[in-house]
Predict the structure.
Amino acid sequence: MTKLNSYLEDLIEKSNLNEKDVHDIRTIFWAVTDEQKQNILDNWDALVSKLKQIEEDFIKEQEILLEKSLEWIDFAIKDINLTTHDELETLKSNM
C-alpha cells in the first residue's frame, strides 16, 4: 500500500462517512493518478463536508416524501371510507 493510500485510510477512519461514500472514494482513489490522489487528500475536509451535506439533504428529502406519502394515504383511506359509507347509505335507502 502506498503512502497516499495509507493516508487516505487514516482520513477515512476519522471521518465517520457512510459505507457507500467510503466505497466510492476508495474506488475513485484507486483509479486516479498520484497527483489527483494528492488533490483529494489536500481537499479532504471540503470533500467530507460536501458529502455529509448531500447526505443530510437526501435524508430531509426522504422525510418530506414520506410525510407527503402518509398524507396521501390518509386522504385515500378517508375517501374510501366516505365512498363506502355513501354507497352503503344509498343501498339502504333503496331497500
